[in-house]
Amino acid sequence: MFKTIEWTDEGVVMLDQRLLPEQETYLTLRSPEQVADAIRDMAIRGAPAIGVAAAMGIALGFRREGGGPGDERRGRFEALAHLMAATRPTAVNLSWAVERMRLCFEAHRNDPFPRLQAALKDEAVAVQTQDIEANRAMGRHGAALLPKACRILTHCNAGALATAGYGTALGVVRAAAEDGKRVAVYACETRPFLQGARLTAWELQRDGIPVTVLTDGMAGHLFQKREIDLCVVGADRIARNGDTANKIGTYQVAVLAQAHGVPFYVAAPISTLDPSAASGAAIPIEERSPHEVTTIGGRRIVPEGVPVIHPAFDVTPHRLIAAIITERGVARPPYTRSLAALRGAPSASRRPRKPVREARPARG
Ligand code: MRU
Is the pTM above the cut of 0.85? Predict the structure, then answer.
């Protein structure tokens, strides 16, 4: 099994996702600046995975520097926190991980330097291992919602590559397959970065889970032909009311799902919830370079001088979402109440494995 990201004595090692599926190449990053570049350039991507990378980038920043007095250490921490937080704006897991590292820093900033270094490294590795645990719990909760045999449409890559391992939306698919359910996945290609075609197809094929790729514009046709039983996608940020930001193109899949009476599920860890955002209107949407749209494989596909837009995410309104699957259970509408209940619930590792918990308020 591949490792999306790993802390080693050499530095932070990550699979370069820009080169998949043709090349399986690992990068060894020895400075926080290199980690920030890798996040920005999408060598690593996916909300939970970039959270882990940011945490490891901060720990890496204290490997050789930051051993001075308290004020100097704090200055170093703030510079690293800013470096990581400024890489990509939409996935809240990134700033969540930075804030987790801040708490760790504050608790240990006056310790002897080796102890501070060890605490930051341990915290970053804990962000990673807890993400895998959360994904497995999410998988169990989500798999219980799936029929014995189903065809699942997903958009982008919310798999092992997008997380510390196992995946969120693809974690649900994996858990269902492990339960003996007959699952088949339709993966939207996901223009322009092609996360569906390059990454989702790659990791599911390696697991022996049936996967078929379609271009984004083919989704409506498949719904019309009754080829889709349900949709599961990941998330980059979920507002208090359940509005969900995910990869550009997710919203149109959700509209199609509603038009055809197909359930549309979101799978995401609690760290993807943003209690400070009342609705999707408060979620910042990353604009990426038009160059990623105007060229494919180095070849220009749009005439010079024609304007191009490139919002990297869109927001799916909560009314289109049948349920939000988290490691603490399944939230149903109205999300303002059910998500708040899950946020207040104890963490997955402290909960019994069964039964599956549904956070469904008594009345809507
Ligand atoms: O631009 P990306 O590839 O980082 O976007 C990733 C997504 O939109 C994923 O669906 C989301 O981060 C969830 S990953 C578990």
Answer: yes
